[in-house]
Amino acid sequence: MGIKSFQGATEPLAKPKCAPLCVSDYMSSSLITFKPDQPVVQVMELLIKHKISGGPVLDDNGNLVGMISEGDCMKQISECRYYNMMMNDQKVDKYMDRTVETITWNLSVFDAATLFCNAKRNRFPVMKDGKLVGQISRSDVLKAAINLKSSTWER
Known about the structure:
Blueprint: H1 23-26, H2 40-50, E1 54-58, E2 64-69, H3 70-83, H4 92-95, E3 103-104, H5 109-119, E4 123-128, E5 131-137, H6 138-146
Parallel strand pairs: 3-4
Antiparallel strand pairs: 1-2, 4-5
């Protein structure tokens, strides 16, 4: 009877793989956020001050309840002029977009690019475990593409 060698289970050799470029690599995590009861005029001031075109609206518990953009603010300006109303009285809650499409932090930037094309949005809130962790914009996806080697689509 011959001697058999028993090594037990071995781990497969790690194959070098190119990790996909995740949204979390390019998203903004330091966000300017807004509240539903915040005056729209204050939102306009913050958009101009921080040179951004929109941002997430969070309730008092930090839950994402909407998005507000320059376009939403423009609606408020137009409506106030039409009805001859004071702009200072209008709140974010009335003008924000409640139909918020979100993406996950570990989504590939290539998939995010496809979502941007299909959704006609300028930004997506980024979620992890049900919480807002950032925001990615079209320009963030463009930055990711520029950082790639055009011939291999690797970093």
